[in-house]
Amino acid sequence: MSLRLITKYTGGTLPGAEEYAELNELAAAAHNTLENGTGAGSGMRGWLRFASRYPDSGEYKQLLAAAERIRSQADALVVVGIGGSYLGARAVLEAVASRYYNEIRRGTPAIYFTGNTLSESDYAELDALLGDRDFAVNVISKSGTTLEPAVAFRYFKSRLIAKYGDAEANRRIYVTTGASPASSTLYQQALAKGWQCFAVPEDMGGRYSVLSAVGLLPIACAGIDVDALLRGAADAAAAYAAPGARLPDNACYHYAALRYHYYKTKGKAVELFASYEPSLTLFGEWYKQLFGESEGKEGEGLFPASVTFTTDLHSLGQYIQEGRRLLFETVLTFGGPANALAVGEEPGNGDRLNYLAGKTLYQVNRAAFQATAMAHESGGCPNLVLELPKRDAYHIGWLIYFFEKACAISGYMLGVNPFDQPGVESYKTNMFTMLGHPDYI
Fold first, then answer.
1. Which is catalytic among the residues 293, 329, 377, 404?
2. In whole angstroms, what is the distance from residue 19 CA to residue 250 CA?
3. What's the alpha-carbon Rg for the chain, to the nearest Å?
4. Is 0.85 topped by the overall pTM?
5. Is-catalytic flag, 314?
6. Largest distance between two CA atoms of the chain
7. Taking the C-alpha atoms of 25, 236, 219 and 179 in order, what is their torsion angle to the nearest 10 degrees?
8. Does residue 365 contact residue 356 with C-beta atoms inside 8 Å?
9. 350-376 pLDDT, tens per residue?
10. Is 428 a catalytic residue?
11. Residue 55 Cα distances to 61, 71, 211, 401, angstroms
12. Rounded Cα gap, residues 263 and 299, in angstroms
């Protein structure tokens, strides 16, 4: 099994035998609801088997060819999208490549994410950063009408036209959107202008779409092994196909059940996603959208938050250790060193660190994780630990599917639709009215 769920730092808070039996029944019922399509949002389950089917599709081959073309025509790719239309791609880019990807890339374009803000300063700074470089645009929006990406696309499209003229600009625009003119204004524009189009699957919400063209085109442009990414997710889908006779036999369902246990039985209100790798910070942002939009409705749901340790131990560590006991942690770790960088010995020992001489930074970081887990456990903040062997494309693909499946099961265990987000529309209605949108006057 590529992922282990470790419960040794839970401080006696795990369910008892009778509680486990009840959780097993709830998880099995949620599984049946998901697999049989009998629950709310059943039309949005396209992600369940997508990773195993997509590599054989014509679109996948076109996507890989488009990524190669972008690498040949552009030194920078501007990815326009918000929420699930950018978080997954950026999370994978940083987790698998590096958070310093744009500085250390070799033979691939710099990748900049915009359309996730309405900040004038952010536009101006990205504009200056692009300078005179050759660039292309990948705009991602299922409907084409979400304000933030629509405004950003209009802005950077005009910059393309000013730099290259209409014909060449059209060759540098790549659209990922709903697959029909009726569902997407972007699709209508693409048909008129000849932009290359990729589909946001109609049966997949944005936060579940990173392993479709939504995330895979920019990920492929960065030179990341998307075959391995999809293979990891497909293998996870096979591994987590059913809950099993008892919850601990299936880490995905076990994790979903323990989240429910901490929320409903132990009074926890916040799940804190933690990692000890700065390159996982954006993965925490993707995680927050996945669980926040899926569970946070009808007065239900854990509040998803994220931290990066050891950095945040020097800011939020005090609260986690001794603040209100409303937290539990889900900690992501990796099983082995990536670079084997060691601490050296210094003559005179002026900094008094010679006790670390010969130890790798992985060993030091691992000790920090274990010490922190023990401290938080003793302070009343249980730790669920998810451990992967390596931080590579295959295992990140596995992890993405693990969380998507666990999230869907969690939602159905809570009795909510894990695939809609009605609350997101409230601010949009107010904003469009204030700005004079003709459909809201």
1. 293
2. 17
3. 23
4. yes
5. yes
6. 75
7. -60
8. no
9. 999 999 899 999 999 999 999 999 999
10. yes
11. 8, 21, 11, 16
12. 13
